[in-house]
Structure formats: structure tokens, C-alpha cells
Sequence to fold (52 residues):
Amino acid sequence: MNNDTRCCGIGTCIVNREGRCWCGQQWDGQKMYRPALSHPPVPETPPTKDDE
Fold:
């Protein structure tokens, strides 16, 4: 590939202008890191008759 200093070491990093790699890692200015997953909140379901 290329000799991008932001590569995580596997040699296949493709990092865009925002610092995001195709594999999901993010450049923080010093090293690549895997950002925390963000999940949408799970809505609470009201109790059913069987739950009471």
C-alpha cells in the first residue's frame, strides 16, 4: 500500500482526510484507536397483562 504513518501496523490502512480508516479505527493525532460503539437507546416497553 503506502507508507502512511497513521497505519496501525497491518499495512492495509486506507485513512481518509477525517482520520477514519476503512476498518473503523480513528486517528487521534498520535495513534489509531477503535472508537466506542454507540447504540441507540432501547425504548422501554410497557408491562403486559402477563407481567402483572
Summary: The first strand starts at residue 26 and ends at 27.
